[in-house]
Amino acid sequence: MATVAAAPWFKARLIPELKNRQSLLYCRNGHRRYRQSLCFRRRSFSIYAAAGDEGAVRVRFAPSPTGNLHVGGARTALFNYLYARSKGGKFILRIEDTDLERSTRESEEAVLRDLSWLGLAWDEGLGIGGNYGPYRQSERNALYKEFAEKLLQSGHVYRCFCSNEELEKMKEMAKLKQLPPVYTGRWASATEEEVLEELAKGTPYTYRFRVPKEGSLKIDDLIRGEVSWNFDTLGDFVIMRSNGQPVYNFCVTVDDATMAISHVIRAEEHLPNTLRQALIYKALGFPMPHFAHVSLILAPDRSKLSKRHGATSVGQFRDMGYLPQAMVNYLALLGWGDGTENEFFSLEQLVEKFTIERVNKSGAIFDSTKLRWMNGQHLRSLPSEELNQIIGERWKDANIVTESQGVFIQDAVLLLKDGIDLIPDSEKALSSLLSYPLYETLASTEGKLILEDGVSEVAKSLLAAYDSGELCGALAEGQPGWKNWVKKFGKLLKRKGKSLFMPLRVLLTGKLHGPDIGATTVLLYKAGTSGSVAPQAGFVTFDERFKILREVQWESFCSNVPLSAGAVTH
């Protein structure tokens, strides 16, 4: 049996007094058998769990591989990781796969992949090993059976031969009496002869833990403060099923104790499990860890976050183009803050700032809009070389550009990045820039204002500047050339400010809104001369744009006569 090191102890007024505390070993027909402990006299007692001296911090994240890693689970893993790192402790990864029907290796691999993507490196556990393995519950059955037998011998558990039908009847009777559905203790005081008779018949049995009829448990939760339960709310509970498989609460207690876990940081939905686990800790003589129960993550309607609210798993957000550093940052803020107005933290900064005392016990609302915004902030804070590479490769994979790097990529990223919150947004941003929806814009409600402002006269002068080569010559000089040209153009038309730039934007880009018109126009010119844009990108070149401009029947727009929008985009 592994020894428990550096875990806090807990005080207790002791276990019920037993007449025959140890099971008797006897021989019959030459076979050694264990005799069920008999004649228990129950007393009331209370348990008070409190932190002892601080020792080596060992925390664990123990997911069930029955699906994808939920953002709630990812936040629990993050808080465990941050606590361990901030205390110089160890972060252990353990897999709780006792649900054999639903657990899969594919889900297990997905969980490991998601944790690695988030940057939450574990010090011990699956794939790494350690001194407390194995780290899959399904590989620890011999250990659970060993401790179950110890509890049977000490009288803390007994064999229960109740059938499913009998248990259902107990539940129905309790419901009729408006009592909680707790086990009535049918086999808790069975005689030796009754037990031996059922064993001889081969009747299936479970191991039930003997719960005191009176008393209470009180813990100092690191997040919720003092929490207590009365024992009379809990009947004798199963720790080993009739098929020999251990039950969750028994497994997790044995695992945490034998792995020397000092702090159990988990979701608040596990809070009711603490009573069962405390009783098992005490019965086995193990010290209790510190407990910290983190609030649930809620949807905007304050219900539990689920698939019906949209993406909920880490893998989904990764596939949607979110950055791991943005996910980590946002998840940390769901129930925690450093006491300042700062909302942006790297993982290293979170380790430095994190304290369990600042974790809020109220539910945290998952705001996908804020997560998207935060991702944009992190994306734009990347070094320019890294950002150019990420977006350039995305554009090339989408067959928008021919090369994933170069001057055109750099200029395009610089121009468009403020409108990109997710990496996939970059495709739409560049495709929109390369398009020319002039007819749709002129036919829109906002377009009417441009028409009324004499855009047709601006178009005539712009066409003249293009035909003379004056415009293209200026654009070939980049931004300085554009600035000189547009200043002269404005003077020629006696326009400036919005009166000048709004018509130019519509005529050159086909749109009413967008990034800086000068930088946009220069980039469009480069797109047509650099060969950087892929043929299938739908790019409308300057030649094609000005051809469309020549064919516009301005009088028809002004008289509200609908026009064909043919040849608007290519």
Automatic annotation (TrEMBL):
Q: What class of enzyme is it?
A: ligase
Q: What is an annotated GO biological process for this record, any one?
A: reproductive structure development
What EC number(s) would the UniProt record show? 6.1.1.17
* A Pfam family matched in the record: Anticodon_2
| Function field | Catalyzes the attachment of glutamate to tRNA(Glu) in a two-step reaction: glutamate is first activated by ATP to form Glu-AMP and then transferred to the acceptor end of tRNA(Glu).
Q: Which PANTHER family match?
A: GLUTAMATE--TRNA LIGASE, GLUTAMATE--TRNA LIGASE, MITOCHONDRIAL-RELATED
Q: Which UniProt keywords apply?
A: Aminoacyl-tRNA synthetase, ATP-binding, Chloroplast, Ligase, Mitochondrion, Nucleotide-binding, Plastid, Protein biosynthesis, Transit peptide
Q: What HAMAP family does UniProt report for this protein, alphabetically?
A: Glu_tRNA_synth_type1
Query: Which intervals hold domain Glutamyl/glutaminyl-tRNA synthetase class Ib catalytic?
Result: 57-373
Entry annotated with the keyword Mitochondrion? yes
Q: What is this protein called?
A: Glutamate--tRNA ligase, chloroplastic/mitochondrial
Looking at the record's lineage, which domain of life comes first?
A: Eukaryota
Aminoacyl-tRNA synthetase class I anticodon-binding domain residues are: 409-524
* GO terms under cellular component: chloroplast; mitochondrion
Record-stated family: Belongs to the class-I aminoacyl-tRNA synthetase family. Glutamate--tRNA ligase type 1 subfamily.
Name where it mostly resides. mitochondrion
Gene Ontology MF annotations: ATP binding; glutamate-tRNA ligase activity
Which catalysed reactions does the entry list for this protein? tRNA(Glu) + L-glutamate + ATP = L-glutamyl-tRNA(Glu) + AMP + diphosphate
The regions listed as transmembrane in this protein's record are none
Localization of this protein: Mitochondrion; Plastid, Chloroplast
Q: Which InterPro entries match?
A: aa-tRNA-synth_I_cd-bd (IPR045462), aa-tRNA-synth_I_codon-bd_sub2 (IPR020751), aa-tRNA-synth_I_CS (IPR001412), aa_tRNA-synth_I_cd-bd_sf (IPR008925), Glu-tRNA-ligase_bac/mito (IPR004527), Glu/Gln-tRNA-synth (IPR000924), Glu/Gln-tRNA-synth_Ib_cat-dom (IPR020058), GluQ/Sye (IPR049940)
